[in-house]
Amino acid sequence: MAKTRAPSNAIIACMLCLTVLFWGANNTGLKFLVKEWPPFWVISSRIWLVGGILAVLLRCTRWLGVAAIIPPGVGRVLWFRAGLSLAAYFATITYSLKFISAPQMALHLATSPVWGLVFELRPRASWTVVRKYSAACLALSGVLVLLWPKIQSGAFAWKGDLLAQIASMLWTLYGRECRGLSKDFSGAQITCATMWRAAAWLAPATLWELATVPIRFTLPLIGVHAYCTVFGGIVAFAFYAHALRFWPVSQVFLFNNLIPASTMAFSYLLMGEEVSSTFWIAVAMVTIAVVAGRSDVVPSDNTVSNGGSRPAVCPDDGA
């Protein structure tokens, strides 16, 4: 695939800010859907549509660029690394909403930048390693602060929080796979290729739900599902994958700190969700942890600056 000129940092930042808003509303919408529909059906029906729509656009138009041919070796990476990690992420994050609120789930995902930094480290004795692992502990402490009132009252739903924290790690792994693939493929093609493969991985569980759980359709449910498909799926994932082509994983993930706030705002406005007394303290702790964890990260030789043309690739992210 021919190398293209990198967009400015300001344009990438604007794309990520829109992604924060799209995903904040998307998280609220998913909570609404999971209340009425079984979780695997919610996510599988959405990502089949996302993958199908993107496949048609890539094949029949030039709106999203020209799709590159996928070699067999890369196809295996898409199936068993990127697609499988995305399927596991979707399954855990959607099922967690059966037990916890959308803002609480989003706060767990906000810890993913710290996991990104931890995964990027090489084990060695140094102050940088100690500081970044300490940042991971601080981020998890922020999650504990959020949960503390429920733990004290005996209303702690550990299943949902455990699933959401596992999803945070899976999201980090998926981001690293996307960045490795982005040196040869566009964000839209990566999104398309990983979405339908993830849907295929989830197909058995989805078919089981359809055989055992009745599903009703109403206009509000269909409308929210359509929003989550188009804006929470196609647009947001394409923006995210495109940003990973030019910025390091941990830098892109910094914007995850804004998703709990946008999710809380949409949940409050649209679903009347109450703000926990410890929510903003927890958000502050996670944000401090992420900033502290990457305070010394500087662009490497592989990172595109303003006007550069070479996409950034993690040294250990081979497609």
Describe the structure.
This protein has one domain. Helix content is 72%, strand content 0%. It has twelve helices and no strands. α1 packs across α11 and α2 packs across α9. The chain is globular and about 55 Å long. The C terminus is likely disordered.
Topology:
Blueprint: H1 9-36, H2 39-60, H3 72-96, H4 102-109, H5 112-120, H6 127-153, H7 158-181, H8 187-212, H9 219-246, H10 249-253, H11 259-271, H12 279-293
Helix pairs in contact: 1-4, 1-9, 1-11, 2-3, 2-8, 2-9, 3-7, 3-8, 4-7, 4-11, 5-6, 5-7, 6-12, 8-9
Taking Cα atoms only, what radius of gyration do you get, to the nearest Å? 19 Å
Number of strands: 0
Which structural class is indicated by helix and strand composition?
mainly alpha
The mean pLDDT is: 79
Q: How helical, in percent, are the residues?
A: over 70%
Uncertain segments: 297-319
Task: Please count the helical segments.
Answer: 12
Overall shape: globular
Amino- and carboxy-terminal Cα gap? 14 Å
Strand content: under 5%
Q: What is the string of SSEs from the N terminus onward?
A: HHHHHHHHHHHH
Main sheet, how many strands, which sense, barrel? none
How many separate domains make up the residues? 1
